[in-house]
From TrEMBL:
GO-annotated biological processes: DNA integration; DNA recombination
Keywords recorded for this protein, A-Z: DNA recombination, DNA-binding
Keyword DNA-binding annotated: yes
InterPro entries tied to this protein: CB (IPR044068), DNA_brk_join_enz (IPR011010), Integrase-like_cat_sf (IPR013762), Integrase_catalytic (IPR002104)
Record-linked Pfam families: Phage_integrase
Keyword Translocase belongs to the record: no
Organism: marine sediment metagenome
Protein name as annotated: Tyr recombinase domain-containing protein
PROSITE patterns xrefs: CB, TYR_RECOMBINASE
Gene3D superfamilies from the UniProt entry: Intergrase catalytic core
Length: 255
């Protein structure tokens, strides 16, 4: 079922499927064919830049929406046209500050590419049409995380205790102990966990790079899960798989 020729990193977010869906949505969009072409070409430039597929999905969707805000093709827009777009973004009450920031950052990046082509990153200055746009978030608007927003160790213990299956106990415990992104934990394979005489060592790769932390608190939970894992002898199998009748034994996905 799981072979060595499979992608070394599992896609628990189904980004490939979502990327194809975003292209399909773009193709069916009522925006002009010219703007569709420009978005597709910019996506190609982002791929050559090695931008993650998740960011490219966001860029395609954002530019599709921005195109609907404009009355002209991207390459025909004036500075005033873009100022009107920014005004529409800023007056979207249902959008968070972070979403508005993302939209503006993508617009600025896109128009830099539109002005300079695929070598746009070699240019320090932005073109005049977009150089006026501010994309930083004011310090007073920065999201704040309160202590009450963070689960305590006691609350984590309660979550682990009420979890009925060893898989869930191991997953919750490792998320807490490693402090890793859910994508880093969720994309692990059997071969990414090894054990010495002390405890398990986890081979993690993500945005923060590669590291091999040791787990202590999670060690017994992971051991219990691996003991009953149906593919524990297959190094390329996902560490986390579905348990129910629907999609049973398939890799676990994160919606």
């Amino acid at each position: 079922m799981y072979t060595s020729c499979m992608n070394p990193k599992l896609d628990i977010h189904d980004y490939e499927k979502r990327y194809k869906s975003s292209l399909c949505t773009l193709e069916k969009s009522e925006i002009s064919n010219k703007n569709k072409e420009l978005i597709q070409n910019f996506d190609r430039a982002c791929a050559l830049e090695n931008l993650s597929i998740s960011r490219r999905i966001r860029i395609i969707g954002t530019l599709n929406t921005i195109s609907k805000f404009l009355d002209v093709d991207f390459d025909k827009a004036s500075k005033d046209d873009l100022k009107n777009v920014v005004l529409k973004i800023d007056t979207k009450k249902e959008w968070s500050i972070a979403t508005k920031h993302t939209y503006k950052a993508i617009i600025k990046k896109f128009y830099k590419w539109l002005a300079y082509g695929d070598e746009y990153k070699d240019f320090q200055d932005y073109p005049e049409i977009i150089s006026w746009m501010k994309v930083s978030i004011k310090s007073k608007d920065q999201p704040r995380i309160n202590a009450s927003d963070i689960l305590t160790e006691l609350e984590i213990e309660k979550l682990i205790n009420v979890a009925e299956h060893p898989r869930d106990k191991a997953f919750i415990s490792m998320l807490y102990e490693l402090g890793a992104r859910i994508g880093e934990i969720g994309s692990l394979r059997i071969k990414d966990v090894s054990r010495d005489k002390y405890s398990f060592i986890i081979d993690l790769s993500g945005k923060t790079g590669h590291r091999t932390p040791r787990i202590v608190i999670s060690d017994p939970h992971l051991s219990s899960w691996l003991n009953i894992h149906p593919f524990k002898n297959n190094p390329n199998a996902p560490l986390w798989i579905m348990l129910g009748n629907r999609n049973k034994n398939e890799r676990m996905r994160y919606a």
